[in-house]
Amino acid sequence: MRVAIFGTGYVGLVTGTCLAEVGHHVVCVDIDQAKVEGLNRGVIPIYEPGLEPMVKANHAAGRLRFTTDAASAIAHGEVLFIAVGTPPDEDGSADLKYVLAVARTIGRHVDGPAVVVNKSTVPVGTADKVRAAISEELQARGVDHDFDVVSNPEFLKEGDAVADCMRPDRIVIGATRPAAVSRMRRLYAPFNRNRDRIVEMDVRSAELTKYAANAMLATKISFMNEIANIAERVGADVEQVRKGIGSDPRIGWHFIYPGAGYGGSCFPKDVQALARTAQQYGHEPQLLNAVEAVNNGQKGHLFELIQRHYDRGEDEGVAGKTFAVWGLAFKPNTDDMREASSRRLLQQLWDAGARVQAFDPEATHEAQRIFGERDDLRFCDNADAALEGADALVVVTEWKQFRSPDFGRIKAALKDDVVFDGRNLYEPVDIEAAGLAYYAIGRGR
Ligand code: UGA
């Protein structure tokens, strides 16, 4: 089939590439000329495992093209995806200006019946707004094309996006008319061979499904962080508690890892946006408010542990100390630092007069862009280099390469012999046997 995708950000680029990979002819549109030129030369603007070779192969095969020319893309597409960003505006609601601008562009250029698909994460009711924007433009042109607006939310995880897209566990299609559903079924048929992964529903339910999924996952994380905070006070070990509850299939092993708080472009934004939607419809979302509040508190927890250690007396506090920081990205396998817990931690360390020597396998470039040049920040080329001359180590992101370090080497490098672990990567007995003091999340002290 012929597909047009508006927005070559995370969602648009991965979706477009995977649709090309299964044989569709995809044109990706972006208003950013430099990005489009880069993509046409094989420069991928994000780090995502497996994406680059797939983009290049499909581009070379002529199934994947990048352009700034919206009109030609609209003429090409039997299905028109809207996959542009929905950044939060001041009150946390999703800002629809980019989505509605694409809708207007479609209305201005479309020249036959169309299926318009919302792939961006958008609040309940957005499909109606997209429909109205397209209709207005059609009316202004004095034409009357038949079109559908479908909600087809994405469930990609950064770092696993290509795999999630190629092997989805479900494909949610919110549509009103059978013809639109059958066109979407044809589009997704290559991903839907072994069993039917397509879940059909009405448009508003599909829109809400996306938020419900992310809010449920965020709730699990905040719940576990709350349990970790209780464990810390009552002298229990949250890691043992986690193992003790995960085997219950009603609870499950996923998303029950306590840590330094959830970040990224989705959970913080989506929990807030769903809360705002609830309030707009007259419902105070007490649970969602608590999920967000717990997460905000949790992002400051590593620093609290650091302060607790350094305020113990023999030391003169955090000021003047140098901290090795392992991991800056909001999670492993990405260079994304949006809402990353590391950002809060670094700011707190700097505010307290400390210095940072940071290493992240992928996010250094992004961190340089965010923080710029500062005297109290040095980027290191590897994990060992970050330890050199540091007083203490803080682990913020659970990259695989941080999982089994040489504790003897850490002890030899650090001046204060203390490790703060925001992701519970180590066994307290192992690390303490090496002569290091160890602080983790919800594990005593
Ligand atoms: C999330 C969802 O997992 C995807 O299903 C969804 O499609 C996506 O948002 C989206 O809406 O686009 P993502 O933000 O890429 O995906 O990252 P996750 O792997 O979900 O991690 C989010 C945050 O939660 C990370 O900061 C991670 O460190 C944290 N987390 C995750 C925990 O603290 N504990 C856990 O047990 C799991």
From TrEMBL:
<feature type="binding site">
    <location>
        <position position="210"/>
    </location>
    <ligand>
        <name>substrate</name>
    </ligand>
</feature>
<keyword id="KW-0560">Oxidoreductase</keyword>
<feature type="binding site">
    <location>
        <position position="30"/>
    </location>
    <ligand>
        <name>NAD(+)</name>
    </ligand>
</feature>
<feature type="binding site">
    <location>
        <position position="331"/>
    </location>
    <ligand>
        <name>substrate</name>
    </ligand>
</feature>
<comment type="similarity">
    <text>Belongs to the UDP-glucose/GDP-mannose dehydrogenase family.</text>
</comment>
<feature type="binding site">
    <location>
        <position position="263"/>
    </location>
    <ligand>
        <name>substrate</name>
    </ligand>
</feature>
<feature type="binding site">
    <location>
        <position position="269"/>
    </location>
    <ligand>
        <name>NAD(+)</name>
    </ligand>
</feature>
<dbReference type="GO" id="GO:0003979">
    <property type="term" value="F:UDP-glucose 6-dehydrogenase activity"/>
</dbReference>
<feature type="binding site">
    <location>
        <position position="121"/>
    </location>
    <ligand>
        <name>NAD(+)</name>
    </ligand>
</feature>
<protein>
    <recommendedName>
        <fullName>UDP-glucose 6-dehydrogenase</fullName>
        <ecNumber>1.1.1.22</ecNumber>
    </recommendedName>
</protein>
<dbReference type="InterPro" id="IPR036220">
    <property type="entry name" value="UDP-Glc/GDP-Man_DH_C_sf"/>
</dbReference>
<dbReference type="Pfam" id="PF03720">
    <property type="entry name" value="UDPG_MGDP_dh_C"/>
</dbReference>
<feature type="binding site">
    <location>
        <begin position="255"/>
        <end position="259"/>
    </location>
    <ligand>
        <name>substrate</name>
    </ligand>
</feature>
<keyword id="KW-0520">NAD</keyword>
<comment type="function">
    <text>Catalyzes the conversion of UDP-glucose into UDP-glucuronate, one of the precursors of teichuronic acid.</text>
</comment>
<feature type="binding site">
    <location>
        <position position="86"/>
    </location>
    <ligand>
        <name>NAD(+)</name>
    </ligand>
</feature>
<feature type="binding site">
    <location>
        <position position="338"/>
    </location>
    <ligand>
        <name>NAD(+)</name>
    </ligand>
</feature>
<dbReference type="InterPro" id="IPR028357">
    <property type="entry name" value="UDPglc_DH_bac"/>
</dbReference>
<feature type="binding site">
    <location>
        <begin position="155"/>
        <end position="158"/>
    </location>
    <ligand>
        <name>substrate</name>
    </ligand>
</feature>
<dbReference type="InterPro" id="IPR036291">
    <property type="entry name" value="NAD(P)-bd_dom_sf"/>
</dbReference>
<dbReference type="InterPro" id="IPR001732">
    <property type="entry name" value="UDP-Glc/GDP-Man_DH_N"/>
</dbReference>
<dbReference type="InterPro" id="IPR008927">
    <property type="entry name" value="6-PGluconate_DH-like_C_sf"/>
</dbReference>
<dbReference type="GO" id="GO:0006065">
    <property type="term" value="P:UDP-glucuronate biosynthetic process"/>
</dbReference>
<comment type="pathway">
    <text>Nucleotide-sugar biosynthesis; UDP-alpha-D-glucuronate biosynthesis; UDP-alpha-D-glucuronate from UDP-alpha-D-glucose: step 1/1.</text>
</comment>
<dbReference type="GO" id="GO:0051287">
    <property type="term" value="F:NAD binding"/>
</dbReference>
<dbReference type="GO" id="GO:0000271">
    <property type="term" value="P:polysaccharide biosynthetic process"/>
</dbReference>
<dbReference type="Pfam" id="PF00984">
    <property type="entry name" value="UDPG_MGDP_dh"/>
</dbReference>
<dbReference type="Pfam" id="PF03721">
    <property type="entry name" value="UDPG_MGDP_dh_N"/>
</dbReference>
<feature type="domain" description="UDP-glucose/GDP-mannose dehydrogenase C-terminal">
    <location>
        <begin position="324"/>
        <end position="428"/>
    </location>
</feature>
<feature type="binding site">
    <location>
        <position position="35"/>
    </location>
    <ligand>
        <name>NAD(+)</name>
    </ligand>
</feature>
<feature type="binding site">
    <location>
        <position position="158"/>
    </location>
    <ligand>
        <name>NAD(+)</name>
    </ligand>
</feature>
<dbReference type="InterPro" id="IPR014027">
    <property type="entry name" value="UDP-Glc/GDP-Man_DH_C"/>
</dbReference>
<dbReference type="InterPro" id="IPR017476">
    <property type="entry name" value="UDP-Glc/GDP-Man"/>
</dbReference>
<dbReference type="InterPro" id="IPR014026">
    <property type="entry name" value="UDP-Glc/GDP-Man_DH_dimer"/>
</dbReference>
<feature type="active site" description="Nucleophile">
    <location>
        <position position="266"/>
    </location>
</feature>
